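Marked as duplicate of an earlier ticket. Keeping the data here for the record.
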Amino acid sequence: MRRLALILALIASPVLAVQPDEVLDDPALEARARTLSEGLRCLVCRNESIDESNATLARDLRLLLRARLVAGDSDAEAIDFIVDRYGEYVLLNPRATGSTLLLWLAGPAMLLAGAGIAFVYIRRRGRAAQEDETLSDEEAARLRDILNG
């Protein structure tokens, strides 16, 4: 029955790298492990979760995560343990705290700065064009002479 459920889960879900020998006996723990592993980055692959990666290190991380859950860790404790061991880079969606807060805010700040610079540039260019269109008294007199003459 367990094999049939596993086969149906593999057919119905996207292909994952989790091996049958990694799957936990408790379906609730396995579901938690799958949910958590979707948010953990494979340190060998680029932007791939440990759930999707076939790398040996990803397998080690999956087994470590499952071992922490079986030991009774909460979801946050298991993730914190892995982050403490491998650093913030292991999270696919890094936390917005500390040094990463600067990275989170840099994009919007640069966008606002660029929009401000563009606004000032366009405004100054418009004023300069208006000033160029105004004729001095000498130019106005010369233009009248040309048109009358």
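See parent ticket for discussion. The helical segments are 2-12, 27-37, 56-70, 75-86, 99-133, 137-148.
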